[in-house]
Structures are given as structure tokens and as C-alpha cells.
Design goal:
Elements: H1 7-20, H2 28-35, H3 39-51, E1 55-57, E2 63-65, H4 68-74, H5 76-95, E3 98-105, E4 108-115, E5 131-133, H6 138-148, E6 157-160, E7 167-173, E8 182-189, H7 197-212
């Protein structure tokens, strides 16, 4: 801690991070041990976070992340979209295909930013807000590949006809961005994806990840 930081706020944020990393919640005793502070401090932190609906406690006394976190999360998408747009524009213009940033939303893939090329005669219409299962389409499959290989770079994923007949997709996961799980990709009307597209999509995913760090 430095003179410019708040110890109480730091501890509160650490509580939220600890709770976010568990599915079954944590007791006051467990939080006290993990934070290295006494139970009285933990009780005060939890009471404050509960007032803002950021934490809730079940009947057994275990603390869990509260629904207030969801309200904060809704504001993340516009910030992520703004940071990703320059890389998406460059990708769309370079490849001549619709570029998109897709994030995980529960069990689905959600397109949060889409950029269409300006110079092509035709391209796939792909709208922000479009949802699909994670195990269908290049965007979702790229995210799943990163989950399966967390310690390495899984490269890019190619698909054809999984979300729209006649359309092919290429996507690469965002890597090394804390709290953001997603992918960058393109979708095009083609029987197959040209060889240069995959590496170009990987580069764009890295650009977006760098912008979000």
C-alpha cells in the first residue's frame, strides 16, 4: 500500500475478487484467513458491500457476489466496444469482411461490436447484440479453445455454415485480459476462409487485448 491508496477500499475489492473466484461462497472465517485480517474487519467490509448489493449472504452465512455487480457489468460492454473499434475497423477493411468482437454472456456468445467493410459489393450482415451458443460458430469455439488451453496460445478457429448457410468464420480468443473473456473474428460469404485471414485475425485479437489492458 502507498500513501495515495485506501487500505479499506483495497480490502473490499479483494473480497469481491475472492468471492468472484468461487461458486460456493466463502464464510467470514475463510475470508479472514485469506485476507489476513480479523473477523471484525471482514464483517464491516461485508456489511458495506451488502449495502450496495455487491455482496449477499445466504442462510448459512456464506458470502457470495451480489446482483449489484451485474449492474456494473452492463457498463463494461460500451467501454470494451470503444477500445476494440480501431482494430476491428482495420481488420474489416483489410480482409473485406465483417469483423466482430464477441464476449461471453453466461452460456452464450454475445457480439458487442461489429464493423462492416466499406469497399465490398456485399458482405455478411452481423449485428451487435447477436447471440449464439458458445459451441457453434468461430467466435464461440475460439473462446472455448482458450478455456481448454489456458497456458498456451490456441491460435485461430475456422468454421463454415454453423450459424448461417454459406458463411465461413475465423476467430481468435482475447488472451491476457483480466475479467474479459471473448474473441475477435470475421465472417464472410465463402466456402472456405483464405489462408491469410487466420493469422490476421490473431493479430487483431492481440491489438484488442493490448487496448484493454
Amino acid at each position: 500500500m502507498t500513501a495515495e491508496t485506501s487500505q479499506t477500499l483495497d480490502r473490499g475489492l479483494r473480497v469481491l475478487k475472492l468471492l468472484a473466484d468461487t461458486d460456493h461462497g466463502l464464510t467470514v472465517t475463510e475470508l479472514s484467513s485469506k485476507l489476513g485480517v480479523n473477523r471484525t474487519v471482514v464483517y464491516r467490509l461485508l456489511a458495506t458491500l451488502e449495502q450496495h448489493a455487491l455482496v449477499r449472504r445466504d442462510l448459512g452465512g456464506r458470502a457470495r457476489v451480489g446482483l449489484g455487480v451485474l449492474r456494473l457489468g452492463r457498463q463494461v460492454h460500451p467501454l470494451v466496444r470503444e477500445a476494440a473499434l480501431p482494430a476491428l475497423r482495420s481488420l474489416a477493411e483489410d480482409i473485406g469482411a465483417t469483423a466482430h468482437l464477441t464476449l461471453v454472456d453466461g452460456t452464450e456468445a454475445l457480439a458487442v461490436a461489429v464493423v462492416e467493410p466499406t469497399w465490398t459489393d456485399y458482405h455478411v450482415a452481423y449485428r451487435a447484440g447477436f447471440r449464439h451458443p458458445l459451441d457453434r460458430g468461430a467466435a464461440g469455439r475460439a473462446i472455448l479453445s482458450a478455456r481448454q488451453c489456458p497456458a498456451s496460445d490456441p491460435g485461430y478457429t475456422l468454421t463454415h455454415g454453423e450459424l448461417e448457410a454459406g458463411a465461413s468464420g475465423a476467430a481468435a480468443p482475447l488472451l491476457g485480459v483480466t475479467g474479459v473473456e471473448g474473441s475477435v473474428g470475421v465472417v464472410m460469404l465463402a466456402d472456405s476462409v483464405p489462408e491469410r485471414v487466420g493469422p490476421r485475425v490473431v493479430d487483431a485479437a492481440r491489438e484488442v487485448a493490448d487496448a484493454l489492458r
